[in-house]
Amino acid sequence: KNIFNIQFTIFINQSIEVLLISHKYEVFENDTLPITMSFINYLSDIEQSVKVELFGLYIENIVENVDIAANTISSKTFYVQVNNTIHTNSIIININVSRAGESIYFSEKEISVIQPIEIKNISFPSSVYQGQRAFLIIKIINYREVPLNFTLYINNIPFPTNLDQIGYGENEIIVDFTPSINPFDFETKEYVISIKDDSGKVLIIETFQTEIRLSSFRISLLIIFVKLKTNNELKSNKINKIDFLFKFIIIALFF
């Protein structure tokens, strides 16, 4: 009588598996990050359920049950809400999938936190003449796909601009203002430029200095005035003309 002793190994696989996890690798503060997960149920006649947990710092944790029909692939998208204030350049989202209290999948996803806008260039004059208009030009990129409401401030004073909103993509913000009309103002002025969103959050802040110069027209008037005043040989009937010119020059200097 022949007796056979055969040994072999049987691998027991999970009857349910996480096939795919897809998501963006960049997120804004106060944004929503979609994470899509695909599951496969290998059992041909039994529906199965898993518990999905997404948790970590700077996000609202999610715990949900997902049912997967027999012998099917099922996908579900989870919308992770990101906090509006994050103190790091990236966040970690932990993903745990369990069945009957036993973990069948765990991973950590590192997501970069980026600013919603980027400043490409800021143009501001280093010097202007008294009474001359100055133009602040800001080239800015909005990475959000929705327009951004904003207010521009110069030294904490709101100023109108050519744009009501910062649209998706590249924008050019232009501010037209006159730094000084004071004829005795020859100082170097400092301007703090800031842009805030609807919530009052500062999106950008920059500081510039501008030298206020006396215009050539006003310099000419001052020279004329000095020459007339220092001419001691003027006849008395011309004094009234000098006073008239003096008043004219003063008015021109101020306006």
From TrEMBL:
Name under which the protein is recorded: CARDB domain-containing protein
UniProt lineage: unclassified sequences, metagenomes, ecological metagenomes
